[in-house]
Structures are given as structure tokens and as C-alpha cells.
Amino acid sequence: MDFAALMSKEISKAKGSDSSKPSAKDTGKGSPAVPTKKYLRRADVEAARIEAYNEEQERLAREREERMANKRKLEDEEADRNREREEKKRRLAEESKTRREAEERAKERERRRRLGLPDLPEDTPADGDKEEDIKEEELVAKLREMNAPIKLFGEDHQARLRRYSRLIQRAAVPKKKVTDGPIPTTLEPVSGGQMIIPANIPKDQESRLFLFRQLGSYFNMVLSEWELALAKRDVSVRESFQGKQAFNAMTQSRENMTPLFRLFEKSELEDGLLEPIVEIVHKAQQRRYVDANDAYLRVSIGKAAWPIGVTMVGIHERSAREKLHQSDQQAHILSDEITRKYLQSIKRCLSFAQVRWPPEDQLQMMG
């Protein structure tokens, strides 16, 4: 086959492929032909890729912002709930602390009243707005002059200023002079001639205050003489078992009579105890120690009948049964421990007084 035959064959093949394609009549005159690109430029592909990447990044940024906004909203809500919870806990803690402090102060006041100690000072909270403001350096210098801590833990300037004001108010209150003696007391002592106790309790307040001064001076004098007598003993006697026991009895009596002196200072000793104590001291000053001991027995164990066996066998009231429940014959030594201790200490002072100042009548010596 020569070259001409090959060329004619290829031309006829090309004409046959053109005739197989649809013509413009078959497809319609109004439909334009859609050009199709067989190849794309690298710049177009890169621009399309960059545009798609930017859209994706914008979408991710919007989603991230939405998540962050939701997270901040949840965190704010959680912070508000925590703040409310902490505020509620703090308020409840303050209320509980205030209630606990009030209960403790009430118990302490009751204990001090029972022991005869001075009452607690009223702790009135100071108003920081009404206080004069002082500079920090000047306030620190003033606290140092008063030998007070310049700063406490967790204390700010206002709290330090209130503490300084309380110290100033406390220093402005005049302190009562405490006398020297076996039992230090604010009662002014009386001389020996004025120490004679009357037989009856005075009615007016001024005379009662003077009576408390007389009682305090008398008991301090007896304790001083007792301590001096024990100090004058020989060393062998002091170091013996009986000597140490006698010294311990004196020391214990001095400690147990301290609540009685606190009642003297505040004039709060009830008449049911004051009257027999006055009777004991009055008869002891007259060296009638047996009569004083009888008065001690009446105030300690009382005169009430002690029931033995069956006390109520019928429904009718008997004449002798009312003696079992008389209120004026109660035993004060059984009322509480503090009263028992200072009544027994008075009895010990009475026992020493009859040795130090013996009676002229030997029948007045206690056994």
C-alpha cells in the first residue's frame, strides 16, 4: 500500500467521524454551544484553593467565636453561682460566729456571776465612720507607745483604728485600786477599831457597803495572822507532813474565799448567806466560838428535819410534816460547790481564830 492510499483512507475515516456528530439542525438553532475547557491555569486553581481555604478559616473562626462566647457565658454563670454560694456561706458563718460568741459570753457571764468574779465589759462595736481618721505611720507609733501589737493578722486600717479607739477608751476608765493582802480586793480596808461587825445587817446601802468592807478586812486580817503563824514555825515542823498539810489548808482556804470577796465587791451576796456570815464573824470577834460554830452549822447543814424512811403514808397533812419542806431551813452548803468551799474556809478561819485569840471562858472553846 502506497502513501496515497493511506492518506485517502485517513481522510475518509475523518469524514465519517464528522458525519456521526449531531448537526446544528438536530440540536436546535437557539441553543448556544457551551464551551468546555480541557485545561485550567495554575493561577486559577491556586485562586480557587485560596478562596476555599479562606472560607473554611472564616467558618472555623465563627464556630470558635461561638464556642468561646458560650464558654464565657457558662463561666460567668458559674462565677455568679459561686459568688452567691460564697456570700451565703460567709453570711451563715458570720451569723453562726455571732450566735456562738453570744452564747459563750452568756455562759462566761453566768460562770463569773456564780464565782463572784467581775462581769465582762460590754463590747460595743465602734463605728468606723464616726472615728477620727489617723495616718498609718502615726497610728503605728501610737500603738507602739501603748505596747500594743501594731498589726494583727488580717487587720486593715479601719480595724486597726477601731482597736486603737477601744484601747483608748479602756485606758480612760479609772481602775480601782487593789489592796495588798492575802486576797487582793478593791474593797478599801478599815482600821482595827472600825472592824467590829454589828449583830444585824444594816438596811441602807451605804451601811451595807461599809459592812462588806469590814468583812473583807476581817478575813484578810485572819488570813494574814494565819500565814504569819505558819511562817514562824521551825524548819523541821514546816517540812514535816503535818506542817505541809497545815500550809496547804491555809492556801486552799485563801483560794476558796476569793469568790466570796468578789461578791463583797459587787454587793451581790444574798441575805440568806450574809446574815449567818455576819453572825459568825460577830460572835468570833466576841470570842464566843461555840456560838459562832453553831451559826456555821445552821448555815452549812441547816435546821431542816432529815426524813428517814416513809414520809407520806396518808392523804392528810400532818403537823410535823411541814418541817421537812421549809425553805428558810435549807442547807446552803449543799447548794453548789463554790458556796461549800468558802463556807468551809470560814470554818477553818474560825478554828484558827480561837487559837490565835483564845476565849476567856473555856466553855467557848470548840472541840
TrEMBL record:
An example GO BP is: generation of catalytic spliceosome for second transesterification step
Q: Where is the Pre-mRNA processing factor 4 (PRP4)-like domain?
A: 140-167
Question: Do the record's keywords include Nucleus?
Answer: yes
**Any idea which UniProt keywords this protein has?**
mRNA processing, mRNA splicing, Nucleus, Spliceosome
Q: Where in the cell is it found?
A: Nucleus
SUPFAM superfamilies from the xrefs?
Answer: Functional domain of the splicing factor Prp18 (SSF47938), PRP4-like (SSF158230)
Q: Name one GO cellular component term.
A: U2-type post-spliceosomal complex
| Keyword Nucleus in record | yes
Q: Ranges of Acidic residues compositional bias?
A: 120-132
Annotated spans, Disordered: 1-132
Q: In which family does this protein belong, per the annotation? A: Belongs to the PRP18 family.
Return the protein name: Pre-mRNA-splicing factor 18
Q: What is the lineage of its organism?
A: Eukaryota, Fungi, Dikarya, Ascomycota, Pezizomycotina
